[in-house]
Amino acid sequence: MKFKKINKLLPITLLLGCNLAPEHELPEVNIPCNWHSVKNEEWISSSPTNRLWWENFNDPILSSLIDRAGTKNLDLQIAATRILQVRREKKGKAFENYPHIDGSVAFGHVYNQRSILDGLLKHAVKDNARGSNRINTDFLEVGFDAEWEIDFFGRIAHELKALNAKIESVEESLCDLWVTLTAEIARNYIELRSAQQRLDLLEENISVHEDLLYLHKVLENIGQISAIDTGALQEALYQIKQQKPLLDLSIAKSIHHLSILLGQSPHELFEELQKPFPIPCLPTEKTIGVPSELLRRRPDIRKAEKDLAVATERVSSAIAALFPRFSIRGFIGDVSTCIKTLLNPSSGTWFAESQLLLPIFNSRLLQQDVDVSKLNRQEAFYNYQKVVYQALEETENAIASFNSDQEKLDLQTLSLYETQKNLDLTKMLYDVGDKDYITVQEKRRSYLTARDNLLQSQVALLMDYISIYKAIGGGWEEDCNESNL
Prior knowledge:
Layout: H1 2-20, H2 60-72, H3 74-94, E1 100-113, H4 114-117, H5 122-127, E2 134-150, H6 155-221, H7 227-241, H8 243-261, H9 270-273, H10 294-297, H11 299-320, E3 325-336, E4 348-357, H12 363-431, H13 437-471
Antiparallel strand pairs: 1-2, 2-3, 3-4
């Protein structure tokens, strides 16, 4: 009757354990159909021509730097090592599904009823007094122990699923790191080329100011202008010269950081990058897709999804730990009270048993584990929503910044055009004697300032372009892992 009751209760217990486990469901997020900041519908496309967005700059040096970073960057190496660690952890956990067999050598003392261990310790019985009904002796044991836990309620299975999701999570962390790395290299490279070009413009501007200052001093000496005018020009020259050490520092820092990003010493790239090179032109391709595609393109969103899966499986595993654990144990070997007879055939012993482990005294502790795992799942649930909305915000801000800087660049382009016209006209008037040389140099100074302002606006727009592609996931590649970087 008792076995019949157990047979009836076991399926109910199994079903109860399954029903208590939560299902993996993603939280609802409000994804707009289109980008609010996009003004050009051509940006919303599902057929980009190049997922390697940095190649759109057509700069072989930049492409080379990013290619080398893919194999040399130390952060990528650390992340790839982390993936291997989690994979090894999963392999170790998978062995819990199989019997454990260990060799054992033991020495002990037994004091018990003869009838219980009579078959197990024959020599002990023989050596003890015949009239005694107890065994009281030392014994030696050599053999193999085996144990196999039968995962009825899925505790181990859910742990394995959690580790599978964890592997995918750390792989997405690697992808997210790659997205950030490519953007950081592109930004530092453009900052480097911008500083080099601005330094060239600055040196030309300093030369113009020094020429003007010399002419003002000559005119001051003959009484044509006052010392106030000369002093103002001298002050302006000092202010311009102050920019040179700042630009030199910016160049050095950019090269240092690019070297570090490529897994090298800070000075390694000086010979390669110290020669000035123009900033890349703004690419014509601007395809970002629709907001819903962020869910599959951004690695941080995919990572948040996998983290939620990990937390869900660990809730299931914690719930399964509340239920009985079934295992089969066995031993085969030799047991004797004397080392001389330990390996005799008569010392051969084996036994097998089934074990039912009931979590009675630690049930409160196990319930605490369930409660904590549920809170961790709730945290991962909210984190997924947070990451999605932050991704939408980042993309909208990048697009809005691009639009704003594009308008600014258009106006500065017109301003430079007018400044160029005024300079050309002043030169013509100077050639026919209607304007003096000082006026020509002042117009040239204004022209150089306008060129510097335009260059900074061009750089800002390039940075916005990089921010947009970083915000949408660094391109259109979905299958990113340590093997294809």
